[in-house]
Amino acid sequence: MRRSDRSWGKAALRLAFLTHRWAGIVACLFFAMWFASGLVMLYVPYPSLSPAQSWARAQPIDWARVTTGPGESGRRITLEMRGDLPVWRIETVEGETHIISAQAGRKPANVDADYARRVAARFSSAPVDSVERIGDDQWTVAGGFDRHRPLWKATLADAGGSVLYISSLTGQPVQRTTRTQRFWNWLGSVPHWLYPTVLRRDNAAWRQVVMWVSGPCIAVALTGMWIGILRMRIGRRRYRGGRITPYRGWMMWHHVSGLLGGVVLTTWIVSGWLSVDPGRAFAGGRAPEAAAHAYAGRTGVSVDKDRLARLAGNARSVEWSGDGGLKRIAIDRASPHPRWLDQASLAAIDMHHILPCKGRWQAEGLTEGCPGRRGQVLRRPGTPLHHASHGPPPLAGEERRAADERRSAPAPARPVEEVASAAMLVPQGRMIAVERLSRPDFYWTDAARLPLLRLRFDDAARTWLYIDPMSGALVQRQDATRRAYRWVYTLLHTWDWPWLTTRRPAWDAWMWFWSIAGLVMSASGVVIGWRRLRRPARREA
């Protein structure tokens, strides 16, 4: 090796030592915070209120007072109650929301403090201590609440110290926190995400802070791995006493824990940095705006109100939609068991009979069976269509007949529309496969949204579309970059591999093991750094 090469190597090693020694003092403080707060987040997630929880105590529709239609079409139209008044909530393809009285045909009165108080009392069955109007706070600062601002914050006099947030747009609860959630989130998600309200209000500034705090921490982690490997001796070259490390005390703990978990710990730091997608490298493609609007469609309300009222019963919401050309009515869509009707005939639609076959959504008994290849549909004579790769196999004999009798809603009297309409969302490609997902897999982990149809295209971006088989709505678009992001961020940061997450406490043990290794490494680094900073002061004394 030439002398110049050796000098460059020594300079690089010295730079690595200096970076790890001095930047590591601050980085280890962040590491310790992230590992400790991450353990909290395993069991206490950031507060949220699901649509089902929000609608659980909503008032049933007063059909006698529904005297006028919405007066306009929209992507989605929902009939619901605002206090004693039925209203139409009209969502346009442009993302706007309009509220119209279903009795008077005009905009209803604004949601005020008195109305918010009544909603909070009905939701919780507890006295309401106070109601105040806010723009945001620590638990409503995310952009998903923007359309509901200003919010009404209702403090409840219950044992859990609950706080409920009411939308000024819809009059429905959109967030709820309890005293326990707030306490643990101040130790969990808030420090972990660098999420104080004053910073998170400016999304661009918050992203920059996350990138420039976690970025140098990556350099500390990588230089630490390099130095740790260089200082390790195995085989016959071990240090005195057969030790693999030359260090003792806190330095030994820091070295060994870094060697043990260095790779996993570094992937956590790198994936955390990727959480804000620096440079938007994993943003993925989007459908042309005109195609997205065309697919979303428009729907109106033109049905026999009295018949629909009888079918809906004590429904809290009735929703009309037209995504993908499917004209549907959803009764209590936010409930665990919504009912679906065809808009034209008001015939019930059974989700269990909607399955993909040869590029179509088919209903039981209306088409020939499909070949039994993976990702397609199997059908035996006299049995329902069945997807070959997801869900339980078809029942036979008495079991099948008993299962059929338990189904309360009949299959539609005709085939439903083709999924080919989704092709307009990927104009550069051709649909090459249709799958029905009835349980989570590696690229779709949210069981609450299942079943879904997954449509695969052969375009350059290798796009996948996830479609709600009942409403036809586009739930998610994934291309190759988004699936890569699933690997480099979501998997490496949360380890939400279905095989592992469905085998708890194995997943808990995995997360705890590496988190403890990270805590030992970072805590020992804090102690070492503190002692190094105190050395000059001791010499001066």
TrEMBL record:
Biased composition (Basic and acidic residues): 397-408
InterPro entries reported for this sequence: PepSY-ass_TM (IPR005625)
Transmembrane segments: 21-44, 209-230, 251-274, 510-530
UniProt entry keywords in alphabetical sequence: Membrane, Transmembrane, Transmembrane helix
Name of the protein this chain belongs to: PepSY domain-containing protein
Region (Disordered): 374-414
Domain of life: Bacteria
Keyword Membrane listed: yes
Residue runs in coiled coils: none
Keyword flag Nucleotide-binding: no
Native organism: Sphingomonas paucimobilis
